[in-house]
Amino acid sequence: MSSDALARARRGIGSGIAFVVTGPSGAGKTSVIERAMEALEGLAFSVSHTTRAIRDCETDGEDYVFVSEETFAELVQAGAFIEHAEFSSARYGTSFEQLERAFAGGNDVILNIEVQGAANVRARGLGAHPSIQVFLAPSSLDRLAERLRKRGTDDEAKIAERISVAEREMACLQDFDYLVINDDLDDAVEELCTIIRAERLRIRTG
Fold first, then answer.
1. Are 125 and 133 in contact, with CB atoms under 8 Å apart?
2. Nearest 5°: phi and psi at 178?
3. pTM (2 decimals)?
4. Closest Cα partner for 50 from 79, 77, 11, 84?
5. Domain that holds residue 19
């Protein structure tokens, strides 16, 4: 049995950890999370709902559950979301169903959510599941702008809007448990993996 599997077994099924990874749009959260999940056992991904348009590189149900504004509003009304937030004219939400599905079998769970959504999770909590919050960002707003331009999905006006939002988001760093700087993908992945390993070994008495 691997050390990660042993740590999960000692905690017991049903007490999985939620690793909330957030940060500015374009910080590279998806790439870092995917690599970390390849490197570590026992991690499941909670797929968020969103009303934004699907990108060419994305798969519905794997990257996000893409829904209409009407469907999203119905889910909010039904109390389907643990957290939901609006970012850059689109809505995002984490459903109870997706999270419990990800926790099934004693896995730990990674959530890729917006900064406002992470704040909602902190305020609400996840019951028996500890929530570890990781803020991932490049070392500067200039690097972020460069990355957004290379992505090629936004015009200059939209990039300027995202940078303005990112500046406000980065002012909330003190609310998070960890900061990971993603200027080098390999380094950022290893840092996130180190955080996950350490939290799996933490002795929790409450």
1. no
2. -140, 150
3. 0.84
4. 84
5. 3-46+107-200
Angle at 66 (CA atoms; ends 16, 27), nearest 5 degrees:
65
Both tokens of 95, joined, read 């459903």
In-domain check, residue 61: no
54 within a domain of the structure (yes/no): no
Q: How many CB atoms lie within 10 A of CB 176?
A: 20
* pLDDT mean values, one per 10 residues, the chain (206 residues): 52 73 91 96 92 89 92 95 85 89 88 89 87 94 89 84 90 94 96 97 76
CA distance 92 to 68: 11
Q: Are strands 18-22 and 108-112 parallel, antiparallel or unpaired?
A: parallel
Q: Examine residue 70 and state whether it is found in any structural domain, yes or no.
A: no
Q: Is residue 9 part of a domain?
A: yes
The pLDDT of residue 155: 83
Strand partners, 176: none
Residue pair 199/15 in contact (Cβ under 8 Å)? The answer is no
Cβ atoms within 10 Å of 183's Cβ, excluding its own: 13
Ranges assigned E (strand) in 118-200: 131-137, 178-181
Closest to 24 (Cα-Cα) out of 172, 181, 169, 128: 169
Here the CATH number for the domain that contains residue 7 is 3.40.50.300
Number of domains in the chain: 1
